[in-house]
Amino acid sequence: MPPKRKTSGTSRGFTTEPIAPAQRPDDRPVEAAKGRLQTSALLTTAQGVRLPDTDHSLKAGPRGPSLMDDFHLREKITHFDHERIPERVVHARGAAAHGTFTAYGNAASATKAGFLQRGRETPVFVRFSTVLGSRGSADTVRDVRGFAVKFYTDEGNFDLVGNNMPVFFIQDGIKFPDVIHAAKPHPDREIPQAQSAHDTFWDFVSLHTEATHHVMWAMSDRGIPRSFRTMEGFGVHTFRLVSADGETCLVKFHWKPIAGVHSLVWEEAQIAAGVDPDFHRRDLADGIDAGAPFEYELGLQIMPDSVDQTFEGLDLLDPTKIVPEELCEVQLVGKLTLDRNPTNYFAETEQVAFHTGNLVPGIEVTDDPLMQARLFSYLDTQLTRLGGPNFTQLPINCPHAAVNDNLRDGMHQTAVPHGVAPYLPNSLGQEGEPVPAEASEGAFVHVPREVSGPKVRESPASFSDHFSQATLFWASMTEVERSHIIEAFTFELGKCFEQPIRERMLGVLANVDTDLCSAVAKGLGLAAPGGAPTAAAVTSPALSQIITVPGPIAGRVIGVVAADGADLAGINKLRRAVEAQGAVLRLLAPAGGTIKTARSTQTVERTLLTSRSIEYDALVVAAGNPDLKNIKLTVLLGELFRHCKVIGAWGNGDQVLTAAGIDTTAPGILLAESMAKPYTTELFAAIGCHRVWERAELGMAE
């Protein structure tokens, strides 16, 4: 470890000396005029107004909506939105695709939203992203992934802006700048990039225990997804649906990947960040080009719209809580298919502008205080990032519904409005000028709801439970997944320099689970503190990613190792079988060019110099080259074995495995005399389970 950083002034590492020049009136003391930042011992606004609270937005009662007269919320979020130019402050690194959403029609009784009516097909654009890293960071870092879907509906654009985790770090949007400032690289050195394994992040989350549930998700395998294809998506917040007859219900949105939910192992993620930092975006583009679209089903958890907005004792306005699927079934209501890559990255993926306030009739927001702040922040962000208010005229953001908005001028105005009266009412209007729509004409009319309460900066009492669902998540994991969570916490906290932060976070984990805390403490060489974990009365099997029933292998990559003289006929059989499953076969050899036999020739698609385990979901050694030895092949096979991937061989190819030190009797090592249908059936079933976790369990036992 490098020596501990020296700090000046305070233990936080910020100098107490003035650091920003400012104009001063002649009558101000010279010392006070040296600067204006960090000169007050008390927290203030940018105007110097002292603040009593920066953790709670101003609301109409503890459970009420946030209020526009919260000048501190608006100033804090506005400054945060504009602090980086030109990339997004968060979600800067992204990849995207076009596609179509097809509704099944079974949501029609719950909402009048047109795109959810039976058989309706709606064009979509979906952007996946990491949260913390810059545009130049790696894809496979441990992080939350954005899962943002823009529906170009007949009633206007609807944006479902979610993540691959159903909960968030904070309960109130006023703290969003704080958690991101803590998670971003340290401001003095701008390191570490795209990582949470550092002091400021763990300082924040150990002090804000409401983050505990989300941290459990982030330290699990969910933080390093295998592919966007195998990644769940969640709307995070609770929304309100409105039916055609005005009835309402509360809902949580889910995206269920048809390929199943699978992740990388930690070593794979680290290798990919070095050898292929574009791994996820390449996988998305290559999969679509290969004719294997990315597919998901939209699911709804529908709950009564009760006065207290709770369900089975769970506060639906708390974004750090889930509703377990065992308590409320996820009803599948439509299919999302991504099958077309962007034509230009900047024009589409970079310029697309999502906004949680882009709603359509039949879908409304709730008083979730994190959601309330997002309603302001997203629109405000676009003004800086895209240069003004006319970003909706960019083709990727332009709605497919007819527009007549009375908005005028501004930077980058590309339309040419007609008429002299862009206001309502007017007596000078010409034909074609808009008039307000009636509800019967599809106008968005908010469902009337009573709002009352004192202006307070508080949270409801139910928001104070920070540990029970973190315990539920831990209890729902398999032993393999628990070992990964322990390793993740140990790695991340091991990267912190400040001992008090490690100890404080162990105190947090002690309130989640005693075994978890003890294992992490042991890895850090510290004593495990006592805690008061909640006894997990139930578990939620839906939270575990480990499966026993094989899923589809479309989009997966199977490598075949061969050299001159290999069984090319067998390779051709395997290739046909692989492509029939929508997967991809890549021929791997010691050198580029072609592989030849007396009757056939095949092109080498990868060489041992350019290949690592991360690129393949399985690797098979072809018959015909029993003497094939190469140190890079040995490394590759060793990685595949450690990463619990399927390894196979047919004919005398098993001799290559033995020479590379692979135990051919271990689980997931599939051997056959020849390439035939029974072997491909066995191979595809094993790949469909994603990993051979029995090998990991053997390692844990040792």
Automatic annotation (TrEMBL):
A GO CC term assigned to this protein in UniProt: cytosol
CDD domains linked: GATase1_catalase
PROSITE patterns per UniProt: CATALASE_1, CATALASE_2, CATALASE_3
Top EC category: oxidoreductase
Keyword check for Iron: yes
Residues covered by region (Disordered): 1-34
Cross-linked residues, 3'-histidyl-3-tyrosine (His-Tyr): H355-Y378
Catalytic activity entry: 2 H2O2 = O2 + 2 H2O
Entry keyword annotation includes Amino-acid biosynthesis: no
Any GO MF annotation of the entry: catalase activity
GO biological process: hydrogen peroxide catabolic process; response to oxidative stress
Chain ranges of the Catalase core domain: 44-432
Segments of skewed composition (Basic and acidic residues): 24-34
Residues annotated as catalytic: H91, N163
Family to which the UniProt record says this protein belongs: Belongs to the catalase family. HPII subfamily.
Function in brief: Decomposes hydrogen peroxide into water and oxygen; serves to protect cells from the toxic effects of hydrogen peroxide.
Protein name, entry field: Catalase
Lineage of origin: Bacteria, Bacillati, Actinomycetota, Actinomycetes, Propionibacteriales
